[in-house]
Amino acid sequence: MKASDELTDFILDQLAPLGRFAIRRMFNSTALFQDGLMVLLIDHAGVVFLKTDALNRDRFIAAGCSPFTYTRRSANGTLKAVALSFYTLPDGLLEDQEALLDWVRSAGEAARRASSNKRRARDSAFPTA
């Protein structure tokens, strides 16, 4: 078993009180989805990231967390850093189940808000008669 699989299993055990999570490999990372929404991301180095938005991001910044970033090539060939709306988990949180559950709940709420905002934008772009 790879170390990343062991970390994923540990996190899933810690998150068990929140219900079921689905696992998908993406961005050279492991993503955990709850109710079809990506809530948590574990990168190839084992760094854990949680979903953020305008309502919970300040909490992550105040805790010294940093965003998930990757580099991509733009249309003109230059490299560009791209930041996703996922921030690192505060240090020491994996071992504190209650605190971890609180932060993951916040990430789940951010994911639901983002999904709701996308639906609203899509629905307003295609109004029904």
UniProtKB/TrEMBL annotation:
Residues 13-111 form the TfoX N-terminal domain. The lineage of its organism: Bacteria, Pseudomonadati, Pseudomonadota, Gammaproteobacteria, Enterobacterales. Residues 110-129 are annotated as: Disordered. Gene3D superfamilies: YgaC/TfoX-N like chaperone. InterPro entries: TfoX_N (IPR007076). Pfam families: TfoX_N. This is TfoX/Sxy family protein.
